[in-house]
Amino acid sequence: MKPLIAKVRPTSGFSWAFHILLLSLLPIILFILVRIDFIVLAVLVVLLSKWRMFAVKPRFWLANIRANSVDILVGLSTLVFMVETQSQAWQLIWTLLYILWLTVIKPSSKTYMIGLQALVAFFWGLGALFLVGDDNSAFYLVLGSGVICYLTAHHFFDAFEEAYTRLLAYMWAFFGAGLVWVLSHWLLYYPSTGVVSQPALILITIGYGLAAVYYLDHSERLSKAVRNQFAFIMIAITAIILVFSDWGDKII
Fold first, then answer.
1. Where are the domains of the chain?
2. d(CA 209, CA 121)
3. Predicted TM-score (pTM) of this structure
4. What is the C-alpha separation between 243 and 237, in angstroms, rounded?
């Protein structure tokens, strides 16, 4: 569903440059707040930046929240990444990536860009969830994964005006939550990434593969050979992850 608030964006000249500057202020403010350790205030800034969701009649609030959920998810996830790293260089990198999101990826209304928005939020959200949730109850990991899967899937299918958007989003949320529930008993983290956990990596592999297949099928470019290739790649990557994992009852 498209946001219910109309937006007019300049496309060139001084107005465009000023618009980009205003969008860039949010990541810069977050960077400053993280550096001075005002984390709660940084969270409030991210949430308050979406105040326009409520500048309409209450009956539109839920639709607006769902339409903006991907943007909120990316903002909060980026904040988590900035807080969890002690490197100022990495904090600057996350700041620049967030600026890229706000100025290039999020504003686009093209179908493939809306799909990209969902995939970025999916990766960011799962990474942040498992980064801060490794010591928490499996309940919160399962619930968070289900919510992330639902919101990003709903955003993705909305881009293609899928008739069964809600059903497919619920199915993906159920699958994601179920997978995390099973694998949370052997919650593994990969030191080389520092962010990606085993359940997140498997969900990202399957999710990205299914999204690519759906996109190709929707654009009538999916052949049987290509579909089989994607299926083989997803199965192979998932098998490698499972076979070479340490299945001890622990978190590493």
1. 12-107, 111-252
2. 16
3. 0.84
4. 10
Per-residue confidence in pLDDT tens, the chain, 252 aa: 444 444 545 555 566 677 678 788 999 999 999 999 999 999 999 998 888 888 788 888 888 888 889 999 999 999 999 998 888 999 999 999 999 999 999 988 888 888 899 999 999 999 899 888 765 678 889 999 999 999 999 999 988 888 899 999 999 999 999 999 888 777 777 654 455 778 888 899 899 999 999 988 888 888 888 888 888 988 888 888 777 666 554 444
In the three-class reduction of DSSP (H, G, I as helix; E, B as strand; rest coil), residue 228 is classed as helix
What six digits make up the tokens of 73?
A: 């998810």
Asked if residue 99 lies in contact with residue 87, where contact means CB atoms within 8 angstroms, the answer is no
Contacts of residue 126, defined as CB under 8 A and 6 or more positions apart, other chains included, come to: 145, 148, 200, 203, 204
Instruction: Please say whether the beta carbons of 182 and 198 come within 8 A.
Output: no
Q: Which residue carries 């209304």 as its tokens?
A: 109
Residue 197, token pair as written in the block: 């956990």
